[in-house]
Every structure is written in C-alpha cells, then in structure tokens.
Amino acid sequence: MNLTQKILSAHLVTGRLVPGEEISIRIDQTLTQDSTGTMAYLQFEALGVERVCTKKSVAYIDHNTLQTGFENADDHMYIQTVTRKHGIWCSKPGNGICHQVNLERFGVPGMTLLGSDSHTPTGGGIGMIAIGAGGLDVAVAMGGGAYYMTCPKVVNVHLTGKLQPCVAAKDIILEVLRRLSVKGGVGKVMEYTGEGVATLTVPERATIANMGAELGATTSVFPSDEVTRQFLRAQGREQDFTPLAPDGDAAYDETLEIDLNTLQPLVACPHMPDRVDTVEHVGPIKVDQVFIGSCTNSSYQDMMRVARILKGKTVHPEVSLVIGPGSRQVLTMLARNGALADMIAAGARILETACGPCIGMGQSPRTGAVSIRTNNRNFYARSGTASAGIYLTSCETAAVSALTGVLTDPRCLDMDLTIPTPEHFDINDNLVLPPVAPGEEDTVQVVRGPNIQPFPIGHALEENISGKVLLKMEDNITTDHIMPSNAKLLPYRSNIPHLSDYCLTPVDETFPARAKQEKGGMLVAGANYGQGSSREHAALVPLYLGIRAIVAKSFARIHRDNLINNGILPLEFAEEKDYDAITQMDVLTLKDIRTQVASGKEEILVHNDTTGKTFTTRLKITERQRGMLLAGGLLNTVKEQNA
C-alpha cells in the first residue's frame, strides 16, 4: 500500500479504496478559522450536538483581525464562547495563522484533519491526511459524523537529488503546478516520495503540501520520518511521532519525476498560480511591493533566511517590503535572536501574525503595481487592487527583489542560507483557550453580536425548476469571484444578507440586483467553476439569492460539495457545444427534476425555453448526495436522521 491508502484504510468507515467510488472516513482533528468558522459553529449549533466528538478540534482567529468596527470583535467573542461551551480549543488573535500553528502544536502523523480552509492540506507536511472542506462538513465531523469524499487517485511525486543553493521548496510546488496546471490534481492525492524528501525540513514539506490546493488536489502527504521526529522533538511533542512510509512495492495511479538538482528559481505570473516560468526568463521587471509571509511561507526557517539576506542592507527606496511571521512562536524567536531587528533595520514593515495581504486584508498594492509575494494565490483582484500584477515566488527571490527593486534571481547571492531545525522551539500556548470540562457546558453563555445573522437553509427539491440564466461565465471562475473576501467584506462573513449585495460582482456588478429582481434563477459557467478557497459562502450567498442550479463544464471539488451540501444542483454539460448555445437571460427549465433525481438518473434534461432546444447535462452524485439534494441539503438530512 502507498501511504495515502494506509492512512485512509485505518480511518475507513464505509466504501472501498477504489478511485472514483464514494468513501467515508473518520476524522481525528478539525480546524476552523474565523472567516469560515463563525458559520461553521452556527451550523454546529443547529445540529443540536452538545460536545464535539473528535480527538482535537481547534478554532483559530487569524483572518479577520483588522478591527475597524465592532463586527470582527463580535465574531471573535462568539467563537471564543461557543467553542468553550462545546469542547473546542480556541487560538486567540495574535497566536498565529491556523496552518502554521496547527503544524507546530497539534499536527500528528497518521491522523486525519478536516478544516474549513482550502489550505488545510498544509498538515500533509507532517504526515497527516489533511483535507479542506466546507464549514458544514466540518460541523458534521465535529459532531461525530464521517466525512464523505470520492476515493482519490494517488500520484507519486518522486523527488531525487537535492535543491541547489537559493532554490527553495516553493520552487518544487511551482514546478508541479507548471507541469500539471490548476486542474491537474483534481480527484487526486499528491504523495511525495524519493531520496529528495529526506533533504526537506517539515516546514519546507508543509509549503509544498499547502500549495497542492492550487492543483485542485484533494490533499498532499509526505512520509513521517526522522526529519519529522526531529521537528516534533523540538516542539516538545516527540510522543506524537509515528514512523509512516509507503510499502516498498506500493503502487500508484500516476508518477511524476522531479530532479531537485535541476530546478531553478521560479515565479507564477498574474493571474493564476500555474502561469509559471523561471525568474531568469521573466526578467528584471520593476517591483513596487514585496510581501513575505502567509500560510505558505512564514515558518521560522523561512523568516531566518529572509533576515540573513536583509541583514546590513536597505530595502530599495521604491519598494514597500512587508513581512508577516506565521505564528507567535516564530515572531518570539525572531525577536529573541535579533533577526527581527535585522528585518526592521533593513526597512521592512512587520505585520501581525495573521492571514492578511494574501486575501486583500491590508497591504493592497498601489494602482498598476507589481507585487512579489510568497503566498499561494494570485487570482485577479484578490490582493484588493484589481490593476496590480501579483507574482508568486520563494522567500529568497522575494527578499532579494526587495533589495534590488526588480525581480531578481536569488542565485546571485553569495551566502549560505542553510537554517537547521532548532533544537528547541519557543513553546508558549497561553493564547490557546481550553474548553470547559464535560458536564459544565451550561456554565458558558454564548455571546452573539448584532452582526451574526441566521444563515439560509435549502428547501426540499421541487418537482419543476425554471429560471433565467442570470449570469454566463467563463472558465476558472474562483470563489473569490463568487463571494469576494476582502477587507471591506470579511467582517460580514456571519451576515449573509449583507454579503448578497456583492455576490459575483467581480464578474458582473449588476448581478446581485438582477438576482433579487428576478427572485432567483440559474447560473451557467465554464470549466473548473469554484476553484480556490473552500469558503462555503460561495454556496450560501447564491442560495440566499435563490440560485437552485448551476450548469457548468466542470466544478472544483470543494465548491461542488458545498453546493450539494446546501441543496443547489451542480449540473455538468454533456457536450460543450451546449454551453455555447446558451445566452445570458435565456430561460431554462428542469421539468420533473425531483423525479429525475430520485430515479437515480445521471443524465438530466434541460429545456431552453427561449430557444426551444433541449440539451443533456450530467448530475454526478452518490446515493447519499441524492438524498441530500432531495432534502434540500446536508443540514436537513442530518436533522431528519437525528429525528
């Protein structure tokens, strides 16, 4: 067996490990962050479960930390009190980014982790099967329910050799993206093997696993070896170590060979993470801003390499350099050893240990700027400045470019950037709040501010659905397009009615008003609809606006699951020519749709009332998902089962 199969089989609840078949697995740990967590806990409360049933569930407050009004602070207090009541640990603002802290303090090799954030696969760097999902899936897992998924194929990413000086782990995952594209990992787990793995530290492995989300992969996983043991020992958690590796004769569905010796510094160009080229070839383009940090590249070793590059130098006068350490642990260690002072002396602006510029939460670039960033996504307008060009690189490339003022190949450096794993990390968990003991739940009063509004719940599927095509979209529409997540909107992630005025506005500013005027309808999209963040709001807000069906060439995994969870039909064109034949505002009718779904038919007929033509779509669902759609979503299904 390969490592993926070993961990999945140890947690298998239903199904067979056959790619393409539905399976369900037991979840050991969950994580949420405040951008998605408020909704997840509202849904958990709606399930009526008194206390979580997982081995460890942690709520992180790391996204909405800009407090320019009462909204974020109110959400923080709701999360702190609802988690204390229901058996969930809470990492307070300032403790760090969820993925970095979870890796440091809670990740356990061989366990399963489900998180309401698409970059939850970061945990694969420590040997976990860590999967991003919608908040409702996480709520059900916290309540003791299994997590259902399509059994993935397993890709062996075989690493040989060793990275050359100034070539980084970030360049490995950029190379994988260059070869496979943002759709190349759909329905797959990327499992890293080979002699090259042993040359990578746990944080470097986590960087690679983190950006596996940009492939559309279910998750990524590394073995748990002596490097893992060393990391856990330094975190004071050696007792959590378990050696894990694939069998010597393990079989894989696909193999990708990467010779680390030959890799060069790479860069992902605007506006997609797979638009990858060498830094050398892209050339010395002028740089206006550099951001170093995010859940991808904010570890202690990342920061130390940056500090070493900056020490004794000055940031280019036309560049704004901002640095965000990933956790309080990292920031404390940098402050104690002088590295933080070196960064500040060079002219860097130090940010709070939180998820920020990556999602446009502060530090948006100026008009038309070039911003070099170490985060994982460079989707159009995600930075908060639509006209800016966001280039994704390693920390080494970013730091050197901040000094030169142009995109620069870091191999020009003549210095040793080897940073060994510390023998002891600084350990201080006093910002992680424990829940009350079992039986004391009634002693906690959950605090709900006025910004926390009820969320929409789907209704049972009608016999017939008819509506106008309110919007026709192209390929690769992201969840950033569907439900923008910037500094202006993040404080309202618990307020669906407010968010509804901004749904799909990056595609068409008139969409919300049209959807409300028409009292709902349908959407038509191209391939890979809903890629990117796991944010469930990209399904909840369209549901609030009356969207009952989306017809697309294909869907991204998490978003498709979120649509089904909320009772929205995800239909795929049987033939792409039918996409071309639809015009925005055509009227589509799904006649006898409840009967069609209940009968188990995969082929669903759609009639275009405007053109008079009928075309075929496919509804690729399991029997379990069929029941969910008929009931109007997962929450309704669970309530029926509980009753």
Describe this structure in words.
The protein is an alpha/beta fold. The protein contains 22 helices and 27 strands. The strands form six sheets. A seven-stranded mixed barrel has the order 21-22-23-24-27-26-25. Strands 7-6-3-4-5-20 form a six-stranded mixed beta sheet. A five-stranded parallel beta sheet has the order 17-16-15-18-19, with helices on one face. α17 (537-544) links the parallel β22 and β23 (547-552). α21 (623-631) packs across α22. The longest helix has 17 residues, at 70-86. The model has no long low-confidence stretch (mean pLDDT 95).
> How much helicity do the residues have?
25-40%
Please describe the biggest sheet, giving its number of strands, its sense, and whether it closes into a barrel.
Answer: 7 strands, mixed, barrel
Query: Approximately what portion of the residues adopt beta-strand conformation?
Result: 15-25%
The structural class is: alpha/beta
Q: Strands of the biggest beta sheet: in what spatial order?
A: 21-22-23-24-27-26-25
- Rg on CA atoms, Å: 24 Å
Average per-residue pLDDT, rounded, comes to 95
Shape: globular
Distance between the termini: 40 Å
How many strands appear in the DSSP assignment? 27
List low-pLDDT spans: none
Q: Specify the number of helices.
A: 22
Summarize the structure.
The protein is 30% helix and 19% strand. It has 643 residues and is an alpha/beta fold.
